[in-house]
Amino acid sequence: MASIFSKIVAGEIPCYKVAENEDCLAFLDINPVAKGHVLCIPKKEVDYIFDIEDELYSKLMFFSKTVAVGLKKVCPCIKVGMAVVGIDVPHAHVHLIPLNTPADLNFSKHVEMTPEELSELAGKIAQEIKL
Q1: Residue 54 class from Cβ within 10 Å (0-12 exposed, 13-18 middle, 19+ buried)?
Q2: What is the pTM of this model?
Q3: What are the residue ranges spanned by the domains of the chain?
Q4: How far apart are CA 63 and CA 58, in angstroms?
Q5: Quick one: which of 23, 41, 94, 104 could link to 99 by a disulfide (CB 3.0–4.6 Å)?
Q6: Please, are residues 67 and 96 in contact by the beta-carbon 8 Å criterion?
Q7: pLDDT band for position 37 (50/70/90)?
Q8: Tens digits of residue pLDDT in 73-105
Q9: Pick from 89, 77, 38, 75: which is nearest to 60 by CA?
């Protein structure tokens, strides 16, 4: 059965896309822990990040770095943090989260954002990403 992320890649489920290339997709998390929380995924469905073939893994990390640079321009922060948890969705993904304190990387708290706010933010971030 395809993961929710594979359904997003296939266009069966909408997302707030911020970047895409041949191998990877980045979109806003709809249940963000901070404003600007982005998920970067390989388009190929692989459950565990360390099972991804080396070439695709490298592409995902470079893609994530590029997205983080654009994200930081739109969401002021000290740094963009990166986390790979891999428990909630059986499709490898990288969390990019704007951070101002270590406490900002807390998956037990969430920021409420409307669909309109998410859409506007996705557009602003997308404009800053240079693939």
Answers
A1: exposed
A2: 0.95
A3: 4-128
A4: 8
A5: 104
A6: yes
A7: very high
A8: 999 999 999 999 988 899 999 999 999 999 999
A9: 38
